[in-house]
């Protein structure tokens, strides 16, 4: 089964990169990005011990999360958030990586069920400065996080980013290095910040070199995506 082979291969690549860049063993968490993938494909990864899954489309995700109904799995929302989806996101996910608006954070805070632990969140940074991209500016991160601190049902964990793609390893490291420095700076007065969610199939090793604690991998695990399935 290709997914099993791919998973073994990615785990090995992560472990090699941890050693090569003086990262602690198992300090990088593999988030399997399962958007557009079927329940059966997800279950193959689960059978091999994969626990963290990332989804981008709320409706699709909720259907799969309910169908799988496995409380050992940890679900991460990594897509753009529409206001009318906040109730379902707050009740179905353990993490949200794409916080870039106070209004959305406020709603998630209000809608997080009391029976669940606070929702883990990352602040999304638009590191490449592209107008089309989601995320706040790096310089606004400190004030933005200070504003988020009023929300007691959210647990602020760190930063997330998706830089403009480049195939050159040293160029890939530059935005990741800036994010790492910013996280260090922010965590001086906020020791609970422990998460850097960076790195996809294209740039996973560069992200690990620069301190990724979560890498978000879809294509290398499940193969190329069927783009016709990418809808809400
Ligand atoms: C789809 C997606 C990924 C996974 O990308 P691959 O190139 O398939 O590994 C990671 N992060 C985000 C935010 C995504 O939307």
Question: In words, what does this structure look like?
Answer:
With 232 residues, the chain is of the alpha/beta class. The chain has one domain: TIM Barrel (Alpha-Beta Barrel). It contains 9 helices and 8 strands. The protein is globular and about 45 Å long. The mean pLDDT is 96. It binds pyridoxal-5'-phosphate (PLP).
Largest sheet, strands/sense/barrel: 8 strands, parallel
**Uncertain stretches:** none
- Helicity, as a percent range: 40-55%
Name the structural class.
alpha/beta
The ordered string of helix (H) and strand (E) elements is HEHEHEHEHEHEHEHEH
Count of domains: 1
Shape: globular
Per CATH, which architecture? Answer: Alpha-Beta Barrel
Query: Ends: how far apart?
Result: 29 Å
Widest sheet, order of strands: 7-6-5-4-3-2-1-8
Bound molecules: pyridoxal-5'-phosphate
> How many DSSP-defined strands?
8
Strand content: 15-25%
Would you give the CATH topology? Answer: TIM Barrel
Radius of gyration: 17 Å
CATH superfamily: Alanine racemase
The CATH class is Alpha Beta
Q: What count of helical segments does DSSP give?
A: 9
Mean pLDDT: 96
């Amino acid at each position: 089964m290709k997914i099993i082979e791919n998973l073994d291969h990615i785990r090995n690549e992560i472990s090699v990169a941890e050693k090569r860049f003086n990262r602690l063993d198992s300090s990088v968490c593999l988030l399997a990005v399962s958007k557009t993938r079927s329940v059966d494909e997800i279950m193959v990864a689960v059978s091999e011990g994969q626990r963290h899954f990332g989804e981008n489309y709320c409706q699709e995700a909720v259907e799969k999360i309910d169908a799988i109904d496995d409380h050992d799995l940890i679900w991460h929302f990594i897509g753009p958030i529409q206001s009318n989806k906040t109730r379902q996101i707050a009740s179905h996910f353990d993490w949200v990586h794409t916080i870039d608006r106070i209004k959305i954070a406020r709603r998630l805070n209000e809608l997080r069920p009391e029976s669940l632990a606070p929702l883990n969140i990352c602040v999304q940074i638009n590191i490449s400065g592209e107008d089309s991209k989601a995320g706040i500016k790096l310089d606004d991160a400190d004030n933005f996080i200070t504003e988020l601190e009023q929300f007691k049902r959210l647990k602020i964990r760190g930063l997330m980013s998706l830089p403009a793609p480049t195939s050159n390893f040293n160029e890939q490291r530059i935005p990741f290095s800036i994010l790492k420095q910013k996280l260090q700076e922010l965590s001086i007065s906020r020791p609970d910040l422990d998460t850097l969610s960076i790195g996809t199939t294209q740039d996973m090793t560069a992200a690990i070199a620069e301190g990724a604690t979560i890498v978000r991998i879809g294509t290398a695990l499940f193969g190329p995506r069927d783009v016709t399935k990418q809808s809400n």
